[in-house]
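Re: [ENG-882] Designed sequences occasionally contain unexpected residues at chain ends

Forwarding the minimal case from QA. Structure tokens:
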């Protein structure tokens, strides 16, 4: 049995489906019974637990061979990440009590960076869990290709990809959530020792011009990449409802300045197989 947190999201769902495809039993860890019904219909056990409830998480993690840890994303956190720290403490307590044989924790590219930014939430998660006395692997994927979901409408209607990743001709590691889920399931099922950190990117690194070209091909119309001036970012993010855009701006600076990067050398980074065109086709179909 494998307990999967974040199962209602793209990555957690991909992990669960990969395990089910291998005939493995899955326990879906969800916040309420309604979110668990679709997974129960697929044959999963369902456990109800909030990510800051150590007792409920302990019950969810008990008696399983492995746990996939994916805390809920927080794109507009309070200063100092108090919500994240509370969830990390609960997760650590639950895992330390339940003692599964293996844990795979979804982290992020750049989790080793010392500079504060939005992804520091995953740095704190690694710090909280890395001293647990059993096998734990931190899976650090590249920028999610599914972030392009928010760009489909503008590209389709106006032929523009508004980019915060700059310069536009700089190739950035990116990866599809399907590849992340597939590798996470492989790591959970792996017998024997694993590296503490596993880094993952897609089959090729992509410039913003590459992505615009892929959008053009899939959408059947010309699409060009345009850089969003950095001086406008704060106002744009506040208009979208963010209370404090600074962590997000710091994260984008980290990608653009190169200090959010893989810790290992290029040869050690695992490669996925899902292309940007495949992801865009799926996203465009959803948005149609």
């Amino acid at each position: 049995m494998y307990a999967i947190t974040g199962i209602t999201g793209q990555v957690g769902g991909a992990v669960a489906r990969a395990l089910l495809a291998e005939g493995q039993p899955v326990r879906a860890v969800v916040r309420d019974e309604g979110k668990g019904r679709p997974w129960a219909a697929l044959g999963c056990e369902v456990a109800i637990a909030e990510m800051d409830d150590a007792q409920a998480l302990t019950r969810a993690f008990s008696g399983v061979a492995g746990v996939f840890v994916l805390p809920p994303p927080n794109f507009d956190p309070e200063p100092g990440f108090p919500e994240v720290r509370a969830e990390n403490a609960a997760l650590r307590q639950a895992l330390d009590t339940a003692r599964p044989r293996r844990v795979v924790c979804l982290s992020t590219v750049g989790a080793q960076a010392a500079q504060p930014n939005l992804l520091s939430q995953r740095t704190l998660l690694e710090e909280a869990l890395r001293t647990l006395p059993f096998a734990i692997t931190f899976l650090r994927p590249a920028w999610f290709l599914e972030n392009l979901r928010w760009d489909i409408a503008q590209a389709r209607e106006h032929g523009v990809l508004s980019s915060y990743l700059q310069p536009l001709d700089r190739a950035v590691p990116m990866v599809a959530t399907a590849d992340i889920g597939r590798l996470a399931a492989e790591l959970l099922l792996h017998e024997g020792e694993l590296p503490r950190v596993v880094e993952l990117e897609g089959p090729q690194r992509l410039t913003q011009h590459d992505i615009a070209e892929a959008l053009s091909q899939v959408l059947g119309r010309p699409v060009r990449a345009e850089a969003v001036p950095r001086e406008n970012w704060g106002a744009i993010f506040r208009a979208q409802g963010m209370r404090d855009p600074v962590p997000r701006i710091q994260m984008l600076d980290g990608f653009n300045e190169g200090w959010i990067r893989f810790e290992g050398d290029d040869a050690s980074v695992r490669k996925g197989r899902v292309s940007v065109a495949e992801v865009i086709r799926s996203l465009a179909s959803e948005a149609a």
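QA comment: On inspection the terminal residues look reasonable. The chain has one domain: 2-287. Proposing we downgrade this to a documentation issue.
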